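User: I'm writing a short report section on ligand binding and want a predicted complex to refer to. Could you take this sequence and S-adenosylmethionine and write out the structure as tokens? A short remark afterwards would be nice.
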Amino acid sequence: MSANDTLEVIIDGTPVTVSQAVLDKYNQPGPRYTSYPTAPEWDDSFGETELRQAFREANAKPDPAPLSLYFHIPFCESLCLYCGCNVVINKHHEVALPYLAHLKREIDRTSAEVDRARKVEQLHWGGGTPTYLSTEQIEDLYSYIETRFSFSPTAEVSIEIDPRVTTDEHCRVLRQVGFNRLSLGIQDFDPLVQKTIHRVQPYEDTRRLFDYCREIGFESINIDLIYGLPHQTAESFSGTVDKIIAMNPDRIALFSYAHVPWMKKQQGSFARFLPEGFEKFRIFTQAISALTAAGYRYIGLDHFARPQDEICRAQDERTLHRNFQGYTTKAGCDLYAMGVSSISALEDVYAQNWRDVQHYYESIDAGRWPTMRGMRVSDEDKLRRSLINRILCHTVVVKSEVERDFGIDFNEHFAPELVRLRELERDGLVRLNDGRIEVAPLGRVFIRNVAMAFDEYVNRAEPALQRVFSKTL
Ligand SMILES: C[S@@+](CC[C@H](N)C(=O)[O-])C[C@H]1O[C@@H](n2cnc3c(N)ncnc32)[C@H](O)[C@@H]1O
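Assistant: Sure. The structure tokens for the complex follow:
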């Protein structure tokens, strides 16, 4: 293919012509902005003392933020080769016992730092595979959490489940204890793709479990898919998307496959079968077309939702928010995270726990907090974080709103960024006018690049440092 080759695609109902040159120019390493500043900027000068100080400050605010809680269960029975998450592979389920004992000690310490008047609005168990735990362990851990925090009656209580290891009994118990939202890992239904990524998961079994979860009354079911997996083509993936549409989930997360073999060596095994450039772009844009034609709204980055979903109203009203779990209508919560590798995000700080179980156990056994690294966020970081959130959540930045919220002169404060955006405008990613920065259809696909224009750290970093991120397409 030459740089002059072009492709016609429909993005969110609008026909767009893209050249290979533009695709290559923007398909570069970049953050996914689950935080700003992003994790590579945090360091070990921030530890237990700083985190506990931040916890005290959060309680002492005149109007303390409600809570979002995250618990990381790292175990999986087998390794999916594409996986970029923090996992511990072990078929012997006894490994969960010491883990749960340590997690409970962390829950004791963390809950002791939280004012009980602050209500939990959101709770999430992620992994790994939370349903690696037995139903008894799930009941026990959930009630342990429930007695140490105060829950709002409208809390969103969600969990990631891997249909391959989740039984009907698991689902019944999850519903009974209080989970009201599920996220099912699927990725792709194509047999060759599944075999290559070591995740064989027949459609019929997944569909049966999905229908059962609907029947027992989960309020919202999300499905995770990945585009850009080995052997995927636009045609093969459209088969998966059609099956998903037939299942009719409330939300769909369509992640771009993050290829980071320098961190996850096993990903190297299928590198030669990965779709690249135009092909990966076609897989994504074709999926957007099929999902939007079936009535889903393309929320942004990697999320789709039914139009009646509250997330769509929040996007229209510009109250949508993004955190480590993705898009959420629960803006303004402080996230307290527990478990190995988990990340807490309060208004003023980020803090991450040790990423390996050994270090995590050692610090808890020694009576310390398992904080590995973190960062206190400056006022300038908060301003830029808010802009990046506006881009990712609302696809528009209204300058007067930013000026009102932060007391700045937008054009003066962001003069270099506005120059940078002119180039993105020429390439069709944004539309600029006096009062607003609007993300154009092509910019919705390259939204990470649009957000990057306001990232002070990434624009300062050496290109080698930027390479820690996966590519933006
Ligand atoms: C933390 S994982 C846990 C899901 C659960 N263990 C399962 O397999 O069903 C959550 C999601 O992250 C996504 N994910 C994992 N590795 C990824 C990668 N390298 N690139 C993009 N998405 C990835 C997958 O869609 C997965 O369902």
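A remark for your report: The chain is about 40% helix and 25% strand. The domain at 39-376 is CATH 3.80.30.20 (pyruvate-formate lyase- activating enzyme).
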